[in-house]
Amino acid sequence: MHALGSGVHVWRITLDAAASQAGIDILSEDEVARAGRFVFEHDKRRFVAAHTALRTVLSLYTGQGPKELDLRETANGKPVLHGSSLAFNLSHSGALALLAVADDSEIGIDIQHVTSGLDETSIARTLFSPGEIDHLATLAADERRMMFFRLWTCREAMLKAAGVGLYGTGLEIALDERAGVFVRSPPTGCSAAAVLHELQVESGYVAAVAWSPRTQQAKICHFDFNDLAASDRKSSQHMK
Fold first, then answer.
1. Mean pLDDT for all residues in the chain
2. CA Rg, the chain, in Å?
């Protein structure tokens, strides 16, 4: 495994492929209970796959067994690994999940499957900043839908890095096709040095990651969990 250094590692997880290898036995009692609350079986399988992948990847960095990891939540619901400086954040939507891992850093990631049927304007009025709402109002329907989801993922990534919920205050994102994405003002509780990047994932999805790098040279490294799982299967077959 590559050293984290001051950068962030982003793991892509194709949930339906990972589900065939997922084992609910390595999850905590709380994770098993949450999985059991899903109405549809495919949603349950994807949840189990995402959290199995989470524990499997974190075990690579810590050297602990996946089931041994003591995953907890802060008072605001942000997942943390007790007794470790390792920071992480998981997001899943549709058939994909993304996991961001960093060392001793604020970290947040979000992925969304772009779908129709939402009242983007009403949701934005409840959660977005005035500047973001005004920008959405200038766009045609298809452009507005895509911009809504891009703003949503960017906001979620920043708010998750700050460790606050959707209603965190002070955050305003600016998205410009030429200038790219930047933070006009960070949310309360988030370092002013936090950076935000949109991620190219797959057609029909948008994603973003936010973190507080310790140096200006910090970079994002990408990994595919399903490649790791396939390698592990090959190794196991060779050992038999």
1. 85
2. 18
